[in-house]
Amino acid sequence: MEKIQLILELELYSSENELSHDEKKLLEMAAEAAENAYAPYSNYKVGAAIRLKSGKIVTANNQENAAYPSGLCAERVALFYASANFPDDPPQTIAIKAKTSDFKIKDPTPPCGACRQVMIEAESRNNKNIRVIMQGDNGRVFISNSIENLLPMSFQASRLDK
Questions:
Q1: Residue ranges of the chain whose pLDDT lies below 50
Q2: How far are the Cα atoms of 24, 37, 62, 112 from residue 72, in angstroms, in the given order?
Q3: Which CATH number covers residue 39?
Q4: Whole-prediction pTM value?
Q5: Is residue 23 among the annotated active site residues?
């Protein structure tokens, strides 16, 4: 038997004030998008803001549904919108911000597994890493320089090759 060790590497910041102007602005836009989330069932609002290669910014939020599996996370809504409307303008950075009035979200909220899989497909399709900026209500910020860092051993299209 052989064991392997996978290491997660994140940049940690005590607040958004330590970020560059562009990253701080992207996080602010994600927070604004979270305000308009449709989350009547969980009251857990998430916003995403994506900076495309051209500099254009796309925002989105989570959209819940009474039939729970029918809703979508903010990250996927934003990525699908960007891909559908700007297919030749790949995503470079995504900021994710979560909030709820039910409790304080102390730690940054990472994307769920399904969102990570969609993000890894975007990285693979564009042959370019996507920087991920994550924050809860306020406070600490986590940044990953690649989705692959957040989803090691991911399922990729190359596994479908015959």
A1: none
A2: 25, 11, 6, 11
A3: 3.40.140.10
A4: 0.93
A5: no
